[in-house]
């Protein structure tokens, strides 16, 4: 492969976003992540003192993040009575059915300040979703792609559009394809981590793109039981490489792999929830079922929402620009995921990264000048 001396953003470098909202300095915003563990849709309302109740619906098995402002309560029908239950900001609210509909709350103790003292954010026009940020990306396909350009370009643009719908639902973020091109992969390399390094070194990210997503048709090994389907190096890393498989792989499986890896860039870690797109082994043909929906689990939804809110607020120079409150909250979320999934290392890695960013600088003694 012919390599160019490209423009590389370092690990943890920031992503510039095209933000489709204005920032208010008078309203503090947080989020409630609702998880419906029942077998039917749940209807509820969020009440804020002085405001009219806002109605919502969360489908069975689904997750719904809702931005909130100030102290709020959740109102829902629990059998023959209407319950009005206070809700802590930046928490997970789970609906379950045990004789009657119940709502339980999960908070995260590592937050350095009270959850309601979260950072300022833009007030959404539509409280059910809010206005979304956009991350510009460039798509690059290696020379082993057999289809004509007009065919594969439409395929990948459609895939990113579908991925954006999923991320907008969970984290108010979309991906905008601003450039499409080719890259030359080395047929002699048969190690995925080396291919990712080759992609990083050989591809220049052309502005306004902030992430380069490469697709490779290498590694066609039908005898492999477990293949490396894609990868990046961590949160906010601007390079992502995905394996594009032979024809017998369904498009929903390809979409799920892309969403999984983009999730890692935006703060998501592996989950023990086997219905989550962040389960460690995607491509398990689960997504071929007619009723299957690609979704994130509640913990990763909360992590990505907090993560992307910092980006929407313009703190795009890297994790070092995130507020201490958001870093502490993310650290608490990853600590909870570690407890739920001790056999996986991704939550521990991300937690360590958040703690490193929030650590105060070391004060060193300055020697007196010699007299």
Element layout with pairings:
Layout: E1 18-19, E2 29-36, E3 42-47, E4 54-58, E5 63-69, E6 72-78, E7 81-87, E8 91-98, E9 100-106, E10 133-142, H1 149-171, E11 173-183, H2 192-202, E12 211-216, E13 230-231, E14 239-243, H3 251-265, H4 298-312, H5 324-340, H6 346-358
Parallel strand pairs: 2-8, 10-11, 10-12, 12-14
Antiparallel strand pairs: 1-10, 2-5, 3-4, 3-6, 6-7, 8-9, 13-14
Helix pairs in contact: 1-3, 4-5, 5-6
Question: How does this model look, in words?
Answer:
This protein has 371 residues and is of the alpha/beta class. The chain folds into three domains: 78 residues; 169 residues, Collagenase (Catalytic Domain) (3-Layer(aba) Sandwich); 52 residues. The protein has six helices and 14 strands. Strands 1, 10, 11, 12, 13 and 14 form a six-stranded mixed beta sheet that branches. Strands 5-2-8-9 form a four-stranded mixed beta sheet. Strands 4-3-6-7 form a four-stranded antiparallel beta sheet, with no helix packed on it. Helix 5 packs antiparallel against helix 6. The radius of gyration is 22 Å and the shape is globular.
């Amino acid at each position: 492969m012919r390599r160019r001396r490209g423009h590389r953003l370092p690990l943890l470098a920031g992503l510039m976003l095209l933000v489709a909202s204005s920032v208010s300095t008078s309203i503090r915003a947080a989020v409630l992540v609702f998880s419906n563990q029942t077998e039917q849709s749940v209807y509820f309302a969020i009440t804020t003192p002085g405001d009219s109740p806002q109605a919502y619906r969360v489908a069975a098995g689904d997750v719904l993040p809702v931005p909130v402002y100030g102290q709020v309560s959740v109102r829902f029908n629990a059998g023959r009575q209407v319950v009005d239950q206070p809700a802590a900001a930046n928490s997970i609210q789970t609906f379950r059915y045990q004789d009657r509909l119940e709502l339980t709350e999960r908070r995260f103790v590592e937050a350095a300040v009270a959850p309601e003292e979260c950072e300022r954010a833009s007030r959404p026009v539509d409280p059910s979703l809010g206005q979304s940020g956009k991350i510009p990306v460039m798509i690059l396909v290696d020379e082993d792609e057999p289809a004509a350009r007009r065919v594969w370009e439409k395929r990948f643009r459609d895939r990113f559009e579908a991925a954006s719908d999923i991320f907008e639902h969970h984290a108010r973020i979309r991906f905008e394809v601003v450039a499409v091109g080719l890259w030359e992969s080395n047929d002699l390399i048969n190690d995925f981590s080396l291919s990712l390094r080759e992609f990083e070194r050989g591809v220049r990210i052309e502005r306004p793109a902030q992430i380069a997503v490469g697709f490779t048709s290498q590694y066609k090994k039908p005898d492999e039981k477990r293949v490396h389907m894609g990868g990046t190096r961590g949160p906010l890393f601007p390079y992502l490489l995905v394996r594009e498989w032979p024809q017998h792989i369904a498009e929903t499986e390809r979409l799920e792999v892309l969403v999984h890896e983009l999730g890692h860039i935006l703060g998501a870690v592996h989950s023990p929830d086997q219905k989550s797109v962040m389960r460690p082994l995607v491509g398990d043909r689960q997504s071929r079922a007619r009723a299957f929906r690609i979704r994130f689990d509640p913990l990763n939804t909360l992590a990505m929402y907090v993560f992307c809110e910092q980006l929407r607020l313009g703190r795009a120079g890297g994790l070092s620009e995130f507020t201490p409150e958001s870093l502490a909250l993310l650290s608490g979320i990853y600590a909870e995921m570690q407890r739920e999934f001790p056999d996986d290392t991704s939550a521990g890695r991300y937690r360590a990264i958040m703690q490193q960013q929030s650590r105060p600088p070391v004060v060193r003694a300055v020697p007196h000048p010699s007299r």
